[in-house]
Design a protein that fits this description.
By secondary structure, the protein is α+β, with helices and mostly antiparallel strands. The chain has one domain: Nucleoside Triphosphate Pyrophosphohydrolase (Alpha-Beta Complex). The protein contains 4 helices and 12 strands; from the N terminus they run E-H-E-E-E-E-H-E-E-E-E-H-E-E-E-H. Strands 2, 3, 4, 5, 6, 7, 8 and 9 form an 8-stranded mixed sheet that branches. A 4-stranded antiparallel sheet has the order 1-10-11-12.
């Protein structure tokens, strides 16, 4: 059996940016509305996901999972994200979508995503309008993840599970769908090369601005959402 050495613990912010995709066009504002998204998922274009399989590290057995990509219907759409607790065994402290491993009792990926969103942050299914799914994304930790894209009706009250979630916040969807905010990184390790995207976001709260460093699998799935909406 081949043993794959795990990645060393690194701060992804310290890895140099090798490129920024500002040459690519933003998704037009008129396509970032609830109705435009409903129509896009009803009549999907021909497109190809850009990111689908990360280079594996470690020897974890593959496991199915699903995440909710929750787009909150405010004056402009925002994406609801979580900061994972630092005590979790995988992806601790990272910015992620609500979601997790598929249970045997789950009917499908949508069921997994809705159940996990309820368990992690207290987002009830009554506020969720599922639009559809994006292609599966295989993480370096061997999770086979189905992203479930949904519109979220405002008025919800969240109750984050402190054992799993350190924080919950929102980012304007237009920011994430602008490739000028998509940074490319390359990291050499153990004779190989790993590449990933980051989408650093700093809140515009004048009293308490805070950087949210979106990277790795979350950024990869968001890049696929960009390709889907820009196609």
């Amino acid at each position: 059996m081949t043993i794959t050495r795990p990645l060393p613990i690194i701060d992804p912010r310290t890895i140099p940016v090798v490129g920024v995709d500002s040459h690519l066009a933003d998704v037009p504002a008129q396509q970032l509305t609830p109705e435009a998204l409903r129509q896009r998922f009803l009549r999907p274009p021909v497109w190809t996901p850009e990111h689908s399989i990360e280079k594996k590290f470690g020897d974890r057995l593959p496991a199915r999972a699903a995440v909710l990509v929750p787009l909150v219907m405010r004056d402009e759409l925002t994406l609801l994200l979580t900061e994972r607790g630092v005590n979790l065994s995988t992806h601790s402290g990272q910015i992620s979508f609500p979601g997790g491993r598929t249970d045997e009792s789950d009917r499908d990926a949508v069921h997994t995503a809705l159940r996990e969103a309820d368990e992690e942050i207290g987002l009830l299914a009554g506020h969720v309008e599922v639009l559809g799914t994006l292609p599966v994304y295989v993480t370096g930790t061997a999770f086979i993840v189905t992203p479930v894209v949904a519109l979220i009706r405002p008025g919800f009250t969240l109750q984050p599970n402190p054992a799993e979630v350190a924080d919950v916040f929102e980012v304007p969807l237009r920011y994430l769908m602008s490739p000028a905010n998509h940074h490319r990184h390359i990291f050499e390790f153990d004779g190989g090369v790993r590449e990933w995207l980051s989408m650093p976001y700093t809140s515009d709260d004048p009293l308490m601005p805070k950087e949210r460093y979106i990277w790795g699998a979350t950024a990869g799935m968001l890049r696929n959402l960009y390709r889907f909406l820009a196609a």
